Amino acid sequence: MNKILYISSEAFPLIKTGGLGDVAGSLPVALCKQSQDVRLLLPAYPEVLHNIAKSKIIATGAYYNLSARILETRLPGSNVIVWLVDCPAAFNRPGGPYTDHHGQPRHDNALRFAIFCHAAVDIALGRLALDWQPDVAHCNDWQSGLVPALLSLHAKRPSTIFTIHNLAYQGIFDRRTFIDLHLPEELWHIDGLEFYDQFSFIKGGLAYADKITTVSPRYAEEILRPEYGDGLDGLLNSRQQDLSGIMNGIDERQWNPGTDQHLKQKYNRRSLAKKSLNKSDLQQYFSLPVDDSIVMIGMISRLVEQKGLDIILESLATLVTYPVQLMILGTGETHYEIELSEWAQRYPEQFKVTIGYNESLAHKIEAGSDIYLMPSTFEPCGLNQLYSLCYGTLPVVTPVGGLADSVTDASEENIKNQTANGFILKERSAVALLAAIQHALALYQQPKIWRQLQVNAMSGDFSWKVSAERYIALYQQTLDERA
User: Fold this and answer.
1) What is the largest CA-CA distance in the chain?
2) CA–centroid distance for 219 within its chain
3) Which stretches of 212-292 are DSSP H helices?
4) Taking the model in full, what pTM does it have?
5) Using CA atoms, how far apart are residues 14 and 2, in angstroms rounded to an integer?
6) Residue pair 259/288 in contact by the 8 Å Cβ criterion
7) Beta strands in 133-219, from DSSP E residues, in sequence order
8) CB distance 273 to 281 below 8 Å
9) How far apart are CA 413 and CA 186, in angstroms?
10) What is the rounded distance in angstroms from the CA atom of residue 400 to the CA atom of residue 285?
11) Per residue of the chain (483 residues), what is the pLDDT tens digit?
12) Residue ranges of the domains in the chain?
């Protein structure tokens, strides 16, 4: 049994803005089931404090002359112990965990997450008299990037793992911020926290962690290339022997069509005929014509360029001439929200857009759709294509990152050998997107083949058990190497 301090800036169901929240709410649970002794460390945002049943103070401290407490609670619906860094001056404020009410990054994010990292380091080094000290500190994304850097200055320290969920978010601040945070000067150099004369949180993880992981094998390869490396491909190539990709799993407590409480009709791959009841329920929900012969296309996404919104908008004039119904749920950049809403107003019998996020509706869209749209520019792992596969909703994707690792194109050969489970664009363009959808529509008219594609999709093992076993092996490898 290893002692794992799992450090994340969000974790579902306590707080979530994206895939990191899903992972941090699921992987620690899976690790516990594999007999690992895990503590999940989070900032005590107001939403987190609101979502916990009870807590107790287990330690106190001060960072940058601001008082902080460590609170202990449990991750709802699990046995995972959660420790919260409760520093009201840093975290007790309205808005999201990283942005204010206007969607702008908080002006003091560097200070806020430096406090979080210092608290993590104190726990990792046994400074808070908690009677528990980790063997491994597992850090996630830039908000915890200072932890491996600060721990590297200590001979007796836990092993460190740093997981990249999205390299595009790096936590870049100016040199003055580094000085104001009183960080050790020996960390300021080109192979340390300095990044083109700026201060990079994420480099703390990439340069100093014992091992680096990404959330899919393909993404681990892609970020070694300039087009995906966001200026860090040189550093990552120098760490290539310590870099690996472990595919995310999905939380089967939340995403399972056989037990999903949000659905009109539960189903599994042996009762796939029942899936159509969720389609008609969704058509009724959106006041669309109830017709099973019409292919329903769903998308649940941040409305940003990364998710392929540019080529989707370019495709719409042609797509609305097809026998399809399209529904999009999400929020993001204002111009995308406006353009999509205008298209929906023009074609109310075919196109529905819901701006915002609705957990129950997300489940209904996954179950009720025939096709799931995900033509991302890049996708470190992606979870919605995994949910879609699990629900027998066939993904239309670009061949990048975790999409390429999880979706097998419905080519003639792959259909014959029963490995096909979705549709992959030949290139990232509106023309290729429309061609993939046309191919899907043609196969939908062949019920026997379509049913086999759905069975293939639902037969995959996307549980966290497999991923957790790979992380445990990596923990052990790191501990053995350091020993």
Assistant:
1) 68
2) 13
3) 217-222, 226-229, 233-238, 275-285
4) 0.91
5) 25
6) no
7) 136-140, 159-164, 172-173, 194-195, 198-200, 211-214
8) no
9) 56
10) 33
11) 899 999 999 999 999 988 899 999 999 999 999 999 999 999 999 999 999 999 999 999 999 999 999 999 999 999 999 999 999 999 999 888 999 888 789 999 999 999 999 999 999 999 999 999 999 999 999 999 999 999 999 999 999 999 999 999 999 999 999 999 999 999 999 999 999 999 999 999 999 999 999 999 999 999 999 999 999 999 999 999 999 999 999 988 889 999 999 999 999 999 999 999 999 999 999 999 999 999 999 999 989 999 999 999 999 999 999 999 999 999 989 999 999 999 999 999 999 999 998 999 999 999 999 999 999 999 999 999 999 999 999 999 999 999 999 999 999 999 999 999 999 999 999 999 999 999 999 999 999 999 999 999 999 999 999 999 999 999 999 999 998
12) 3-249+464-482, 269-458
Which CATH superfamily groups domain 269-458? Answer: Glycogen Phosphorylase B; (3.40.50.2000)
User: Can you read off the two tokens belonging to residue 101?
Assistant: 């009410």
Using an 8 Å Cβ cutoff, are 4 and 140 in contact?
no
Return the exposure string of 228-262: e unless at least 16 CB atoms fall within 10 Å of the residue's CB, then b: bbbebbebbeebeebbebbbbbbbbebbbbeebeb
What are phi and psi for residue 271, nearest 5 degrees? -130, 45
Per-residue tokens: 283: 């058509």
170-219 pLDDT tens trace: 999 999 999 999 999 999 999 999 999 999 999 999 999 999 999 999 99
- In the block, residue with structure tokens 């989707």: 312
Q: Describe the strand order of the beta sheet including 56-63 as a list of residue ranges.
A: 56-63, 66-74, 81-86, 37-43, 3-7, 136-140, 159-164, 211-214, 243-245
Closest CA to 114 of 134, 89, 132, 138: 89
Q: CA Rg, the chain, in Å?
A: 23
Look-up: residue for tokens 């091992």?
Answer: 211
Separation of alpha carbons 381 and 467, rounded Å: 13
* Identity at 162, one-letter amino acid code: F
Q: What is the fold of 3-249+464-482? A: Rossmann fold (3.40.50)
Helices 430-444 and 309-319 pack at an angle, to 10 degrees, of 60
One fold for 3-249+464-482 and 269-458 = yes
**Which residue's structure tokens are 């549709």?**
423
The C-alpha angle 74, 80, 84, rounded to 5 degrees, equals 50
Q: Distance (Å, rounded) from C-alpha 94 to C-alpha 109?
A: 14
Q: Three-class SS of residue 429?
A: coil
Please state the φ and ψ torsions of residue 13, each to the nearest 5 degrees.
-95, 15
